[in-house]
Design a protein that fits this description.
Shape: globular
Order of helices and strands: EHEEHEEE
Largest sheet: 4 strands, antiparallel
Distance between the termini: 17 Å
Strand order of the largest sheet: 2-3-1-6
Low-confidence stretches: none
Structural class: alpha+beta
Strand content: 35-45%
Number of strands: 6
Number of helices: 2
Helix content: 10-25%
Length: 94
């Protein structure tokens, strides 16, 4: 079973035009955002449509998850969940 990563949220189905600053601004009303990180394609440097938002406290992360999961942002329905540790022993590839 994957281990939960503190107060970090995984945000998926983001618009490919979303910026780091926009992601941080979206989640900042819920508390102190320590980090907002968009995952980019290493070759093209274009966003892949998902990222991570790290909060200072668990309460802030829960508030953001409750409000932002299932919201429409830039015309897309986004999904928010707690991030899990994906260490090699947690990956199950067939």
């Amino acid at each position: 079973m994957a281990k939960r990563l503190g107060f970090q949220l995984f945000v998926s189905k983001l618009s490919f035009y979303t910026t780091h600053q926009e992601l941080k601004s979206l989640f900042s009303p819920f508390g102190v955002v320590k980090e907002a990180k968009l995952i980019r394609d290493p070759r093209t440097q274009r966003p892949k449509g998902f990222g991570f938002v790290t909060f200072e406290t668990e309460t802030e992360a829960h508030k953001a998850l409750k409000v932002m999961n299932g919201r429409i942002v830039r015309g897309r329905l986004i999904f928010v969940e707690f991030a899990n540790d994906r260490s090699p022993e947690n990956d199950t590839k067939c």
